[in-house]
Design brief:
This protein is α/β, with parallel strands linked by helices. Helix content is 42%, strand content 14%.
C-alpha cells in the first residue's frame, strides 16, 4: 500500500467544494506539505503557470480536482470553454508531472462521460461504448480523454496515474449559485426560499423522471485517499453508493426536509440530461476497500443545516462556473 504520510502533496481545486474535504483528510494522513494552487495565482490551462505551480509545491503526489463545470444549463452555455479548460488543465498537469517523476497522480473523472444509454448499473468497461448525453458531452469527453492519456503514459513511461469516477457529489460547502449549481443544492435553495417567501408552488427543472445516484462529499474524499493508496494503474474506478433515486422522489424528499409544504411543478420543457445514472461498485470494493458511509437522508440533513447556517452568516458558496465538483 502506498503511504501518503510525510509526502509533499499538491491539490488542484483544493480550495473548492471537494478539495476542502480532501485536504482535511490528507492532513489526517500526515502529509508533510500540502499546497493548493489558487485560481487567481495560477491559470492551469497555461503550461507556464503549471510549471510555476510545480516549482512552488515540489510535489511527490498530485490530486487533480480542479475543473470548469456546472449543471445542465451551464454546460449548454459553455461547451467550448468547458472542453478546452478541462482538457488543457489535465494535459498540462500530467505532462509536467511525468517530467518531474511524480510518485502518484490522481485524476478525477466524471460520470457524465459515460454513454447516454449505458446499461444500469454503469460498469467501467462500458465507458467508451457510445456517445455521452449531449448537454454534458464536451465536458465529459475532455475528462475521459485524460484517462486515455494516463493509460498511454503508464504504458510508455510507467507514469503512476490513477483515474477515479465519482458519481454526483453533494454536501456542506457545495456550490449554491442559482444558475450553475447541481440538482441537490439547487433544490435546497429553491425549497428554503419558497418556504420563507410563502410560495404555494415551486418549479423544478426537467420532468423528474430521470434517476441519479449521489455521493456525500466526505465519502468521496475518503475514496480518493484510498485510490491513491491502493491503485497502481489508471484503469477507471467508479465511486458511489449504489443507490439510484428518481429526481421526483429526491425533490419531494428535499422539500419535506426543508419544511416546504407547497406543490412541486416539473418543467418538462427543460432538458433532463442522462436518463439514468447508477454505478456498479465492484472495483471500488475489491481494489480500494471502499464503501460509502453516509446515507442520502443523513447527508441531505447535514447539507440543509449547513446551507441554512451559511445563509444566516452570509457565507454561501456561489460559483458562476468553475466548480471542481464533478457532475
Amino acid at each position: 500500500m502506498f503511504s501518503l504520510a510525510n509526502k509533499r502533496v499538491m491539490v488542484t481545486g483544493g480550495a473548492g467544494f471537494l478539495g476542502q474535504h480532501l485536504c482535511r483528510q490528507l492532513l489526517q494522513e500526515g502529509v508533510a506539505k500540502l499546497v493548493v494552487p489558487l485560481r487567481q495565482d495560477y491559470d492551469l490551462t497555461q503550461a507556464e503557470d503549471v510549471r510555476r505551480a510545480y516549482d512552488t509545491a515540489n510535489p511527490e503526489v498530485v490530486f487533480h480536482l480542479a475543473a470548469e463545470v456546472g449543471g445542465i444549463g451551464a454546460n449548454q452555455q459553455h461547451p467550448g470553454r468547458f472542453f478546452f479548460a478541462n482538457m488543457a488543465m489535465g494535459m498540462n498537469l500530467i505532462e509536467e508531472g511525468r517530467k518531474r517523476g511524480l510518485e502518484k497522480f490522481i485524476q478525477t473523472g466524471t460520470i457524465c462521460a459515460y454513454p447516454k444509454f449505458t446499461p444500469v448499473p454503469f460498469r467501467e468497461e462500458n465507458l467508451w461504448n457510445g456517445y455521452p448525453e449531449e448537454t454534458n458531452a464536451p465536458y465529459g469527453i475532455a475528462k475521459k480523454a485524460l484517462q486515455v492519456m494516463l493509460a498511454g503514459y503508464f504504458a510508455e513511461y510507467g507514469f503512476p496515474g490513477v483515474y477515479v469516477l465519482p458519481v454526483n457529489l453533494y454536501g456542506p460547502g457545495d456550490n449554491f449559485h442559482p444558475e450553475t449549481s447541481h440538482v441537490i443544492p439547487a433544490l435546497i435553495r429553491k425549497c428554503i426560499e419558497a418556504r420563507e417567501g410563502g410560495a404555494d408552488t415551486l418549479r423544478v427543472w426537467g420532468s423528474g423522471s430521470v434517476s441519479r445516484e449521489f455521493l456525500y462529499v466526505e465519502d468521496c474524499a475518503r475514496g480518493l485517499v484510498l485510490a491513491a493508496k491502493n491503485m497502481v494503474s489508471p484503469e477507471p474506478v467508479n465511486l458511489g453508493t449504489g443507490r439510484e433515486i428518481q429526481i421526483v422522489d429526491l425533490a419531494w424528499t428535499i422539500a419535506e426536509l426543508c419544511n416546504f409544504h407547497g406543490k412541486l411543478e416539473f418543467d418538462k420543457e427543460k432538458p433532463d440530461g442522462q436518463p439514468r445514472r447508477s454505478l456498479d461498485l465492484t472495483r471500488a470494493r475489491e481494489r480500494l476497500g471502499f464503501k460509502a458511509q453516509v446515507t442520502l437522508e443523513e447527508g441531505l440533513k447535514r447539507t440543509i443545516a449547513w446551507f441554512e447556517e451559511a445563509r444566516r452568516t452570509g457565507t454561501i458558496r456561489e460559483v458562476i462556473y468553475g466548480s471542481e465538483s464533478p457532475t
